[in-house]
Amino acid sequence: MEDNTKKAPRKKTIDPAAEQLLKKAEKDGVSTAFSRVDEMKACSIGLSGICCKNCWMGPCRLIKEDSRGICGATPATVAARNMARAVAGGSAAHSDHGRDVALMLRGIADGSISGFQIADETKLNNVAADLGIETEGRAINDIALDVANEAVANFGRQEGELSLLNRAPAKRQEIWKKLDIAPRGVDREIVEMMHRTTMGVDTDPEHVLMQSLKAALGDGWGGSMLATDLQDIIFGTPWARRGQVNLGVLKEDEVNIVMHGHEALLSEMIVAASRDPEIIKYAESKGAKGINLSGICCSSNETLARQGVPPAGNFLHQELAIVTGVVDAMVVDVQCIFQALADVASSYHTKLVATSHKAKIPGAEYIPLDEKNPIETAKQIVRLAIDNFPNRKDYEIPPHVSELIAGFSHEYIRYMLGGEFRNTLRPLNDAIMEGRIMGLAGVVGCNNPRATQDAAHTYIVRELIKNDVLVVQTGCGAIASAKYGLLLPEAMAEAGPGLQEIGETVGIPPVLHMGSCVDNSRILTILSDVVAEGGLGDDISDLPAVGIAPEWMSEKALAIGEYFVASGAYVIFGVLNPISGSPVVEDIMKNKWQEQLQGRLEFEADPAEIVKKTLAHIKERRAALGLTEYKPGKYVRIGAPTAFDANSKSLQTPHGA
Ligand code: MSK
């Protein structure tokens, strides 16, 4: 692992806005994750996954292959248990989010939550059909109530299988049955994972890890998928829209409210409150020209996709936004929120407002969201920010803003490729089969201060699109690409000619922003749809596709990685290897899973190696499918000189001219 300690600020990020504010933070005497990482040398035993803290006979640090814990646990057992517990934690986080959305839909349908109506009836009907719920001739709220009840039941179900596993290719569903990893209920698999990894229960690393796959599948095809679907039903399915990104979206003459965390409810309510004419008038009465909303992390991705609210940045921008001195309130709910925000806020005028009954933060104001009447809480928070506007002192807003296009839900992608009446993925499948698009890659996940912010994300994305790989992104990875213009059609200039041709024809960027972290479930859906469209095999594992998390840091990322592997994908994680202390566990996740699931998980710190492995896998999958051999530069503009082979008879121009 690259040691990122003691680096000059310049090397901690490739983002000039972050670089500018790191200098300001240093000048202001404020510590950030970028500076704290210098002081916190990672424990190499914990980092490599072989420190066991599952009981208090230890902790046991199993530094050699033949080391044993006090109970006799081997390094492989410890590394497997640690990985499995992280996956259970990540699955719990996303799935608890999904549960709350299901309960909200139930409240809207039965009238106990006020101020909402169903935003996307078509999606409601489609989800109802997938859940086996009758829709013909029924009132919308009755359908919504049945959908919500079935969704809630998926969390606590003790027997049978999750409802939405039926979206996966039939062959994949068979594999899950054969391996007994089709999740019964979302909660049940997480609880069983925690039970099995407590002291003195399951010690067979392969068996432990198999259950981690089951818990992760419960997240991907259960909790996260329900979160995505039901949020679309309540707040609307994203459709492509233009937006802006980076710290330059903050405004000096308006009240700045930054929304950070994950759940769409809070951010949607803040958006609604900030548009209330009375509230706007109140802001003007305090000398502000208006109310300017922006976001961090996935709250941001949710409101960007549905409301066009600009992200102020990704994970590592959360403290830097406050360092600008112009954030009047940062409003947070759950997940990826630094405890240090309260300290940073105390050095400036910013009010940090915690809103979830699940997450109190010492030093933050606590205004819990009233789930029965959330708009009133949102108005209270916006007023608090307005009252704080006159308290600003010195400030510095970096000038950096980039344009972007977001909102590529799987529904929009089908629409974009076939229109309203014939929405389809056929042109995408054909482009892959012909070799215009070499393959697909999902490049997702966080920033990690142990790596240079955004460097691996953007390097990998640029290399892939150059090689005609269509990239889809979610979470902080998508925000990273957005900051450097990669979510714009103009970025096609950096793509290979085949991908350029498709992008120009359809009018898309080479990198499609598919949403927040729970929206990784949209990628599962689109991969299943690509299989169903035909011509690219009969399972996700047949597709020339790879999943990558270049700068991950969260348990949730590990859960996502495992549900993609269990769905048949080759997944590569960057930055560091949390199981490097056990070659046995590495072998299970790479080779044994490949045999059993035709998917595998590898850790590779070097971004160039990640690209190499990705392209090699895509080529290997293309060959296995018997597709036209991918040749770079084969497709060129009419009249343009070819980069491939000017004399080749097989040379083609876009329209065969
Ligand atoms: S927010 S999990 S830092 S992607 Fe979904 Fe970003 Fe990773 Fe949190």
Low-confidence stretches: 641-657
Number of domains: 4
CATH class membership of the largest domain: Alpha Beta
Strands ordered across the widest β-sheet: 6-5-4-7-8-9
- Beta strands, count: 16
Q: Could you please describe the fold and organization of this structure?
A:
The protein is an alpha/beta fold and 657 residues long. It has 4 domains: 46 residues, no CATH class; 161 residues, Substrate Binding Domain Of Dnak, Chain:A, Domain 2, CATH 1.20.1270; 145 residues, Rossmann fold (3-Layer(aba) Sandwich), CATH 3.40.50.2030; 217 residues, Rossmann fold (3-Layer(aba) Sandwich). It has 24 helices and 16 strands. The strands form 4 sheets. It has a 6-stranded parallel beta sheet with strand order 6-5-4-7-8-9. A 6-stranded parallel beta sheet has the order 13-12-11-14-15-16, sandwiched between helices. Strands 1-2 form a two-stranded antiparallel ribbon. Helix 18 links the parallel strand 11 and strand 12. The site of Broken Fe4S4 cluster (MSK) has 14 residues, from helix 12, helix 19 and helix 22.
In short:
This protein is 47% helix and 10% strand. It has 24 helices and 16 strands. Bound molecules: Broken Fe4S4 cluster (MSK).
